[in-house]
Design goal:
- This protein has 5 helices and no strands.
- It is flat, with a radius of gyration of 27 Å.
- It has helices at 6-36, 41-51, 55-58, 67-80, 90-97.
């Protein structure tokens, strides 16, 4: 009698898919952190070489402005302020009475 190894193969395939997804996620997060810290040049050069067959012959000089840092820092200011609630009207009077 031959024992099926299908369950083993399915489990192994799922494990490999999870590992691959984590590795891809980690790589993407590292790229985003690099963008935040002005380390975009290697990605920009890679993008140019993917888009243009002979990027060097075009004489393109890669340049970037870090808008990522501006957006992230501006957004994070929202989370630095403390929460405050103002209640007005009849509900405010009942809260003050307590």
């Amino acid at each position: 009698m031959v024992k099926s190894r299908a369950k083993e193969w399915v489990e192994r395939t799922l494990l490999m898919a999870k590992y691959s997804a984590r590795r891809g996620f980690k790589t993407e997060m590292e790229k985003r952190i690099d963008y935040y810290h002005d380390r975009q040049m290697p990605y920009l050069i890679e993008l140019l070489s993917e888009r243009y067959e002979d990027a060097e012959a075009l004489g393109l000089e890669p340049e970037f402005i870090n808008v990522i840092k501006t957006i992230v820092d501006g957004t994070s200011l929202v989370y630095r302020s403390t929460l405050s609630t103002n209640i007005s009207g009849i509900a405010a009077e009942s809260c003050e009475a307590r």
